[in-house]
Design brief:
With 389 residues, the protein is an alpha/beta fold. Helix content is 47%, strand content 14%. The protein folds into 3 domains: 86 residues, de novo design (two linked rop proteins) (Up-down Bundle); 207 residues, Rossmann fold; 65 residues, no CATH class. It has an 8-stranded mixed beta sheet, sandwiched between helices.
Length: 389
């Protein structure tokens, strides 16, 4: 049974607000939404509430028309902008997920895709995995980042399978159903869920690919897990708090860092709550961050975000390392690559690849051309594994 892996490509100017524009592009290129519907939807988006309303309406329309793949994508992205505490949030997430697995049911029935729930803490880690026909070139662990859903990476998993790789796609604490169903929030100790997967499947000598915030989590896991031999950081994340503050003017950034050093919780919270009242995007972003991290205030979120880095253990990273950047990432300036490279003193090898607008891959995690990135990663693994040391 041959997989017909479908990748939509391109980078489009759907909306004047950068984050809405990115998420609309994500709905098209990653989740296979309809480009014409998304372009029309974009005209109606004025804020978070209108996003939720209009995306739900579009999801219902697609479902009524029997377009299951589109409906699943729209429900997923409607849930993305729903606040924690919204009684519809879990229902919409589960509807999106159920439709997704209905749409891909033949791949699971055929055995091309398999699912397992790996015991972890008092719950489980969901894993979807696939083994290639014929020779297996390598074993890959694949995971997302701060805002990820594993369903978005199923096409990548299938494409890598066609290239001869066994792929284990998973969600850890703070992600997907681990967060929504089990209420398990993020941990910087990513080596713990990774160890559980490696132990369960008895995997050795693997490549780990971490996307977005996963580009901090995957190297962090590799610092403590010798069974990881190759690391792909699919984004140039350095420190999560640093990235959050990069969007603020330099003077304000220095003020925040001063206040954080001196633990001025009340002042920071008052400043952030005032900004949240003015800007619905900031309001949603901080609520979303507090939900993912399991904290109650903006100050606590910022303190916790400051712990999400791997430079404090970078000297323990000795594997082959591939770093992937994007020329016009709205979240991360391209200059950040130097911070990452300078911290990796003991890696076996280091490859840096910057994707550009000409390649339709300049946005965050190069979502406009996923196939190109996967081709590059696959070629890199082949070169590294066939290298004569």
């Amino acid at each position: 049974m041959k997989n017909q892996v479908k990748f939509y490509s391109g980078e489009y100017q759907f909306h004047p607000i950068a984050n809405f524009n990115y998420q609309l592009n994500r709905t098209y290129t990653i989740s296979n939404g309809d480009i014409d519907e998304i372009a029309e939807l974009a005209k109606k988006i004025t804020g978070v509430k209108s996003w939720e309303k209009e995306m739900l309406l579009l999801a219902e329309k697609a479902l009524n028309e029997g377009r299951i793949e589109n409906a699943s994508a729209y429900y997923r992205m409607a849930e993305f902008f729903m606040y924690d505490g919204n009684p519809e949030k879990l229902k919409v997430y589960e509807k999106s997920q159920a439709l997704f697995y209905e749409y891909h049911s033949e791949l699971f029935k055929s055995g091309i895709l398999k699912q397992e729930k790996i015991p972890y803490m008092n719950g489980y880690i969901p894993v979807v995995y696939t083994i290639p026909d014929g020779e297996c070139k390598d074993v890959i662990l694949l995971h997302g980042g701060f805002d990820s859903y594993m369903e978005e990476s199923i096409p990548s998993l299938l494409y890598l399978r066609e290239k001869g790789f066994a792929v284990y796609l998973f969600e850890g604490p703070g992600q997907g159903e681990v967060l929504r169903r089990q209420k398990v929030t993020f941990t910087i100790e990513w080596e713990k869920p990774v160890k559980a997967i490696l132990d369960h499947f008895q995997l050795n000598e693997v490549t780990i690919i971490g996307v977005s915030l996963g580009s901090i989590l995957a190297p962090r896991a590799a610092a403590f897990e010798s069974r990881i031999k190759r690391i792909v950081a699919w984004s140039v994340c350095t420190n999560q708090l640093e990235l959050l503050l990069d969007a603020t003017p330099e003077k304000l950034k220095k003020l925040f860092m001063f206040l954080l050093r001196h633990k001025c919780k009340r002042i920071i919270n008052n400043m952030m709550y005032a900004q949240m009242k003015k800007d619905s995007g900031v309001d949603w972003g901080l609520h979303h961050g507090m939900y993912n991290m399991g904290v109650e205030t903006p100050y606590d979120f910022m303190v916790k975000a400051n712990k999400y880095e791997y430079k404090n253990v970078a000297d323990r990273i000795t594997q082959d390392f591939m770093l992937i950047g994007a020329e016009k990432d709205h979240l991360i300036s391209i200059e950040k690559y130097k911070t990452v490279i300078d911290s990796l003193k003991n890696v076996k090898s280091l490859t840096y690849r910057l994707y550009t607008a000409k390649e339709k891959a300049a946005s965050h995690c190069s979502i406009g051309n996923t196939k190109l990135v996967l081709d590059t990663i696959a070629a890199w693994i082949d070169v590294i594994k066939n290298r004569v040391d």
